[in-house]
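Run log, item B.
One chain of 107 residues. Sequence copied directly from the ordering sheet:
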Amino acid sequence: MRPNPGDYSKRTYGERILKINLKIFNVTVRETDLFISTDFDLTAASLCSVYQHRSYIEAYVEAPPDFLTSLATMEYDELAPSIIRDMSAAARKAAVGPVAAVADAVA
């Protein structure tokens, strides 16, 4: 799940959001980079959630040998963590590999 460091580009989507009465914060953990705006400061809870879900994904990609690299939809274990099932379902709808749905599932 490591992109080429040269592929990074500055995220500017947060500059286009109306920020009246909202708590605005970023949560960044390795490749996960979330821009969050909400009524309450949920920085700690968001960071906790990102670490938890990333750990599920990182542990799961070690088991099925082609889960990380597959460009096609795959079957998944019904006992897999919910984020893996969500990724797989989203990938199936888009006819792509499961890792293509990481950003959507984490967000």
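Observations after the first pass:
- The first helix runs from residue 43 to 60.
- Residues 38 and 79 are 32 Å apart (CA to CA).
Flagged for discussion on Thursday.
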